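W.,

You were right to be curious about this one. When I first looked at the sequence I had no strong expectations either way, so I just let the prediction run and decided to look at it fresh. Below is the sequence, 118 residues in total, followed by the output.
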Amino acid sequence: MRIKEVMNKYKVTRKALLLYEERGLIQPDRELSGYRDYRLVDIEVLKKIILLRKMEFSLDEIENIIIYNNKELILNKKNEYEKEAHFIETKKLYLDYIHDVIIGEYEIDEAIDAIDDI
């Protein structure tokens, strides 16, 4: 598959493909004419890169996962998301207290104490 086909099919830029190649993540063959020929193995790696990018992995992290098989980074990202989810849930509880203070159902000092207890 040539570079334009890959760009169109997988919605990636030429710059991204060349960067992935430069970083050693994909290694398309070169035809005699100099055109890149993306093989099935390159496409499979590209799909993994796309998936990891959608999950907000950096290019360095992707390189460590794909080239060095560092699966621990995936678990680290999961833990990071779990911490973020907990933080968001806590903030939602704070907003409940603030709402109750604003509508007069809760004293502000009680709300502050309740938030501190959380």
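Here's what jumped out at me. Residues 59 and 65 are 10 Å apart (CA to CA). And, maybe more interesting for your project: The chain has six helices and two strands.

Coffee later to discuss?

I.
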